Amino acid sequence: MSKVSIRAMDSVREIADSIVDCVGQTPLVRLNRLFANSGISVLAKLEMMNPGGSMKDRPARYIIEHGLRSGVINADTHLIESTSGNLGIGLAMMAKTYGLQFTCVVDPKITKTNLEIIKQFGANIDMVTEPDEQGGYLKTRINRVQELLKTTPNAHWINQYGNELNWKAHYYGAGSEIVEQVDGPIDYLVCAVSTTGSILGFSRKVREAFPNVKVIAVDAVGSVIFGTPAGPRELPGIGASRVPELFTPQEIDEVVHVNDMESVKGCRELLEYEGIFAGGSSGSIIAAIRKIVPAIPKSSRVVTVLPDRGDRYLDTVYNEEWVERLYMKNSQDHTLGAFNNEPRSFYFISEQGRYHGTGRSIL
Ligand SMILES: Cc1ncc(COP(=O)(O)O)c(C=O)c1O
Questions:
Q1: Closest CA relative to residue 44, chosen from 263, 305, 273, 299
Q2: Three-class secondary structure of residue 257 per DSSP
Q3: Do 241 and 134 form a contact (C-beta atoms < 8 A)?
Q4: Ligand 1 pocket: which residues have CB below 6 Å?
Q5: Range list of β-strands (E), 181-320
Q6: Are strands 41-46 and 28-30 parallel, antiparallel or unpaired?
Q7: 0.70 cut: is pTM over it?
Q8: Which atom of ligand 1 is nearest to the CA of 167?
Q9: Residue 190: closest CA among 273, 284, 280, 309
Q10: Residues 238-273: pLDDT tens digits?
């Protein structure tokens, strides 16, 4: 029988005053198995371990506490934000804890799970239903926010795409923690992007400590952030249909675009090899690192951030039928083969262009 080594337990943490105090201090984990034999070291900051389930707990907390300290937010404030995802959940959790009103402007594309979680925290849901001229809901949601700002007493807009406090939350948060936790100079920082707040915050802090770091953004195929054409994309969290006001492209050294199917595969690999059950953009990151490994020097130290947990993706990334439908939609794309010839049991798209579900690869 092969031996299994068991880790000693660490001492318990001190008592927190509220769930708000549990934001942050997330672990940095070496992805030893996934990138075994690659020669590079990949360290992943598990921002998914924040209490609301994602890295968006950081800006939710930071923006609200900054506002409370400066007086921009007080007990009568009614927070407004357009978000269908993790920031909505983070804000709903913070609003509940601080006793603030929060209205979350969402559209019909929000997942049932996210809608339910935001409601459970007691936030108001304001659902827009009219698509804009592009067929999406972005403009309609922004218009609705503007209306609410005029008609809601003591309204305060969080404005994640343009709020400088968004990147600062990540600069003082996970960015600082990464610099403290890492075991040597960081050569590459690889992050998924949407508002770009997190990549800007992390990279500004990391560059202070390691000026030679290369910052690599992972964006979705179909996102317009880096000037590529808009297109259909299914995974929430990663990508954007407009360029965020916060974004400063000159701070990004490279961008890797990843499609939905590659992201699904990355998620399955993360689960299979590392036992990490993560959301869609974490899979995008794994796919992107796979793409850059052949081009970077051996012995590089790569740091990444895994933004959220897999639970909210049980109906998508981890659902057979959903993946099958996605595959059918994208069936003209034959770039989705396995990365190597080793037979492994994970979800797999063969070079012959068929989805196999779990099982051994047949390359
Ligand atoms: C799961 C997930 N990954 C990545 C991102 C991108 O982060 P940012 O908006 O800071 O660019 C988000 C943002 O909502 C997210 O929810």
A1: 305
A2: strand
A3: yes
A4: 54, 56, 85-87, 192-199, 237-238, 279, 281, 307-308
A5: 188-192, 214-220, 254-258, 301-306
A6: antiparallel
A7: yes
A8: 10
A9: 284
A10: 999 889 999 999 999 999 999 999 999 999 999 999
